[in-house]
Amino acid sequence: MTEGRLQRLRAILAQEGVPALLVGSPYNRRYLTGFWGTAGYVLITADRQLLLVDFRYVEQAKEQAPAFEVRRFDRFGETLKQVLAELNLREVGFEKAHVTYQQLEALQAAAEGVAWKPVGPVVERLRAVKEPEELARIQEACRLADAAFERILQVLRPGITEREVALELEFFMRRQGADGVSFDPIVAAGPRGALPHARPTDAVLQAGQLVVLDFGCIVDGYCSDITRTVVIGKADGRAREIYELVLRAQEAALQAVKAGADQVAVDQAARAVIEAAGYGDQFGHGLGHGVGLEVHEDPPRLNRTAPSQPLEAGMVHSVEPGVYLPGWGGVRIEDLVQVTEDGCRILTQSSKELLEIG
User: Fold this and answer.
1) What is the CATH architecture of 132-357?
2) 210 near 323, Cβ under 8 Å?
3) 3-class SS at 18?
């Protein structure tokens, strides 16, 4: 798996005329090497691959990244200078999305005479199409998220707080074997559901309220992401109207997803349904984002502001339309899907009926 990724990366670098690439992004580092320590750098050339780590991670790096030459550094700049001189490198690419100006100055100071070339998201493009082992881990993370939703349906009731619901979601997924949560769970009841990224508070759930639940977990490094909206007690007519609208929008988008479909057009498939109902201004975020080692990956990015770009078989992304009404609340429904040649495979399986709890 590692060798195949390195071959594809080297082909891209050769095409772009980059003789070497320094990788510092922790997610790109893990993707290329299998090493999941919290610090280190990867250096890829046409025929060498090195993993530079400090004392804390030497043994771990040797175990997790057997295909790499592991070099220990005490002062990174000094070791980098030695390695670049040893490899006779005069030009090195760096990840322009992950290197600050201050870090670039440090690289330039460490290796005088080396030209540092900004490189776009070449590793992210490789990560966008998932391999079978990656898909299996994402699927397991989705299974645990689905199980957490079933669990939380037993917990939801008037009188419990948003914070208590969020904690139960996290504790349950960890107890079931998750490495952690893929992001802090969102639990937004009543009017707070109009905040797409609401943080759980001590607000108490009340009968008649819609509750937006957005959460996911990590399994062996890979994330899940799911959103469901439920009602505490009985749903009134407006809640049913908005919920059914969002569900129709999601179904339209799911029908549009397939290899070759433009990511902007898939966003528009959902957006058109919501706009036709008069709620276009209340759906202000994109339809979806890539999911993998990170819970928000790009590409793909299903958004009206994104560049036109075809989806590819093997990509995994969210499909999450929503309608948010200040002072009233909101509805969001989100699934993770795997793009296939002729459609998509829905990875999250929790019910999408409007569930009335308690």
Assistant:
1) Alpha-Beta Complex (3.90)
2) no
3) coil
